[in-house]
Structures are given as structure tokens and as C-alpha cells.
Amino acid sequence: MEDQETGIGRRVQRLRKQLGMTQRQLAEPSYTPAYISIVESGRVRPSEAALRFLAGRLNTSVEELTTGRPARLATELRLALTDAQRELATGSAVDAAGAFERVAADTERLGLGPEQAEAVLGLGDCALETGDLDRALEHFEEAERLLADAPLPRRARAVRGRAVAHLLTGELRYACYLLESAIEELSTSGLADPEALVLLYAAVIGPYIDMGAHARAAHAAELALSLAPRVSDPALVAGMHRQVARTFLAEGRIADADASLAKAQAIYRQLRLGTDLAHCHWMRGYVHAQGGELALAEAELRTARDMLRARRAELFTAQVEVELADVLRRMGRYDQAAEVAGTLLRLDARHGAVHAGGAHRLLGLIAEERGETESAEEHYVKALALLERSGASGDLADLCRLLGDLLRRSGRVEAAMDAYRTGLGYRATPGTTTLGPPPAAPPRPEE
Asked: Pro residues: which segments have biased composition (predicted)?
């Protein structure tokens, strides 16, 4: 493998000869032919000033001289990455995944580490939205490896993605631990980046709710909303920067094109916050429901659901629909509640166990209130099976109480006592959040 000095020298010589220049013509007026000869032989690395001079004389960039990567190619890849981010922010996660795959492969080949990490993060976000949680976890773990030396705000999206993947598979305590640890590190290190905090606070709402830490969830939601950026028509602004970048690229103004792409990427990251802000509307709906303001709760939850549906975020939508179905049930609109909850039963134990378990619980309540005892028991038992490995001790204890009450009213006292004892065991489980000793990472599923 050639060292950097030899590589630079060979590129200078190749480009000089392509232009039909002598060493004297390249050197004048700032350097001597002898200096050019020494550079081309690889015996010295040019200074930054010399590199800028040579790049200008050879109609190339300092980046191409030092790395061998054509500056235009690197910028074109950044443009392709921005296009993939636009597709994910405003279009199809499936189409975006294909674009991110191509960018990830090309950036890895060219050694563009930051751009490769962005592409891998995009693949993780696509996998989350399409419900492929195992693949999402792999992508976010890879992104964390690529960003291992970067400051925490740069790694926040990977941490958040990994935590959400664990949450959606029912591993609540570990998801909570990942997010709390990152928030704590940001808060104590002086790196309290607003965008990173919005991502982390919004993501921690779900595990807090499922684990019964309602006050923490409400506080996280308010903090996220207070930090949310206020962008006027961000998609339009981002599109403008993309088009400006294309114009600069066509004119050979590589640095200006890169600057415009950086602005577009920042806005597309802000657009991605729409998913997280939908979680905050969901949290507000939950708070209204807890206060008995069911009409307000329904409005907030429908807003959150519509935002998530527009993004085709199936599992996140399910998270909201569990709460919406419960509100509809409490309003006496049983048929609508059963219809909403029934659509969630397709979620299996690996992909949305918590939400499928919540749907079975709601269908059990509806069946019980309609006098359909056998159906209610069946739904409660299925809900218990789905939630047992999640660590949602409050939900499990509540289900055992519901099942125990149902069994007792039907005269099955011993079975009811067993259900109550099981529920007391869940209720006595120490800790509802993970501040303290971290739990072990959940085992990865067997291939």
C-alpha cells in the first residue's frame, strides 16, 4: 500500500501529464521545477499552501490530491445521501432503504466514514418504519461502531434507534436504560444539543408509560415539545438547498454545493422529528385520558395516529392505537374500540408484543362488559403471554387482577386466587425504571 506522500506525488504527476504541462509550467510562479520533482517522487508531502496551489493549477481539489477521491464524486454521493433522506422524510421507507443501501456501499468503498454512518442510520430508520426490528438493531449497532469516536450528539440517533428497536420488541427496561444513560451523559457533559435531546426525550416516553412511570413520561414530553425546532415549511427550504447544490455542482463549485447539502440534511433531520413529535401528541392524549378529558384525549391521539400513518410507521401507529382504543371504550363506543384494537392483533411476539398485548387486554375488557366471559378470559390469557417477557410489571399485575376478578365472578375461586398471587408477584417486582445498575443486554434472537 502506498504511503500518503507517494500517493500525492503520483496523482500530481498524472494530472500534470494529462494537462500536457511541464514541471516548470506547474511550478511557476510560486515554486521551482525541482520542488515539483521532489513532490512527484514522493520524497516530501506538500504543505497545505502548496496543496492549494497545486490543486488550483491542476483544476482539481485538495481532497482529490490527498485522498485520490474525485471531489465531484464525493459531493455527488452526499447529494445521493440527501435525496435518500428526503425520501425517508417525505415518501416511502422502502424506496429510501434502496437509496441508502447504494450510498452505504459506495461510501464504504471510498472511505467516506461520516457519510457511511449517515447512510447506515438511514437504513436503521427505514427498518424501524417497516417493522423489521432485527435488521434495524443491526444497522443501529453498526452506526454506533462507525461513530465510536464521535461526540454523543452525533451518536444520539444511533442510541435512540437501538433503544426504540428494543422497546418495540418488548425489552422495556433495557430501552429505558439506554435512553436515560444517554440523556444523563448529555446533561453532565455540557453537550446538551437540542436536537439530540428531542430525539432521546421523545423516545423515552414509550418505555416510561409502559413501565408505569407516568410523571417522568409527562415531563419528558413537555421537555421534547419545548425544544422542538420551529421551521417554516421545512420541506420547501430543504428542497431549495438541494436544487442550489445541484446548480453549484454543475458549475464545479464543490465547496458551495457541499455547504448547501449540509443545510438540506439539517432540515431533513428536523423533518424526521415529526415521528417523535407525534409521540408527544400521544403523551398529551394519554394525560388527558388519565384526567377524564376523553374528547381532548381522542383528538390528540387521532392527531398522533394520523402523523404516524402518513409516515407509514406501522409499529409506532400501533403504539398510539392501543391508547385510542381504550379511550373509545371508555366513551362507550365499543364497536369502534374493538375495530381499532382488532387491527393490532396481527403484531406478533417479536414485532410489537407490548402493543398486541394491550390490544388483547382491551378486547378482553370489551368482551367482559358485553357479558362474553369466555372470550374475555381468552383475550386476558393471550395478553399475559405476550407481556410476560416485556418487564411491564404494572400491566402484568393489572391483567392478573382483571383475570382474577373474572374467574371469581364465574365461581372459579381457586383459579382466581392463583391469578391474584401471580399479580402480586409482578407488583412486587423491584424498580419501575432503570436508573441504577444497568440490566444486561437482551440476548439476540437465534438465527
From this structure: 436-447
